[in-house]
Amino acid sequence: MISRSTIFSFSAMALLALMPMAGCNKQQVLQTPTGDNFPLDHVVRVNPMVVSTKGSYITGNLTKFDLLVEDSKNPASKYTYSNTVFKKSESGWVSDKMLLWRKSDADVLVYAIAPSLGLESTISVDDINFGQNGVALGVQAEQSKDDNGSDYLGWASGQKAVSELLDKDGRLSFAFTHLLTRFMVTFKLGTEFNASGVPTQDIISDVVLSGTARDFYLKGATDYTSFTIKPGTAASDIKPYNVVWNPAADKTGNCTSVYECILVPQTVAANGFKISFKAAGKNYEWTLPEDQEFKGNTAYTLSLKVGKDMVIAGGFTATAWTEAEGGSLYTE
Description:
Blueprint: H1 4-31, E1 46-50, E2 64-71, E3 81-89, E4 92-95, E5 107-114, H2 125-130, E6 135-138, E7 153-156, E8 160-161, H3 162-165, E9 172-178, E10 181-189, E11 204-213, E12 215-220, E13 227-231, E14 235-238, E15 241-246, E16 256-263, E17 266-268, E18 274-279, E19 282-287, E20 292-294, E21 298-306, E22 311-320
Parallel strand pairs: 1-9, 10-21
Antiparallel strand pairs: 2-3, 2-5, 3-4, 5-7, 5-8, 6-12, 7-9, 10-16, 11-14, 11-18, 12-13, 15-16, 17-20, 18-19, 21-22
């Protein structure tokens, strides 16, 4: 027969056995975020995109960029990071070192820049904001269709709480914009170049743009939500790359050749911007007769009509840097 004392003992033991499980469950609940997008491990994770681009950087071919973070209330803290390289892998974006957020409501200022400056260059948020001129950068003298080294992208958060910058998955989600200028020139050849038959291969060669500065300084804007570009003072040549060659359908049509490059935003004085090239081995030059301002995140398209003994402008347009394929933006 079981006594009342035995029943009491069993009940006490059962209660003690359940207590660790209850404690475990309570601890697990505390570790689970409830409507908060801040990561429990405080690790900085990213989800970058590229706004309106084709022919240079797009979201799919962005493989590496730099992230700079400043703990606004305490810039000297361990939660402030100079440019840290993030690389795209099969599992997502990984950094060359672990970055941590201090806390959800901590105010931060974050900059993202592509192409990556690499580990050999140490640049801080303060360098960009308070350096004498900012950070010195530049576009390539000879540019290539397969190299995005001159297409600088940027994103600036402004000073905000960490939680305001994270998506529902706790990632720093942002969209890059183009900081510089996209320039395209379409050479429209006269029918006289078809006299011996329509050329099957591009007869435009040795294209050189003269009169713009290739060097520039990148600096944070006053509100830290964008960047300013200050061009250098020395002008130098740039060799653009060929985007597409479109042979005429027959001898009565016009062949076209499109070249493209990245320029530094700046204003060029009248007669200061020149394009030199060869058509069927003959040298040509064209000079822009008026002042021209080249703006950042803008695509400029120039159409040049080329005859046997002359070259004239057929149109010069400026549009937002769009999703159009290289070679499709030109004017008659």
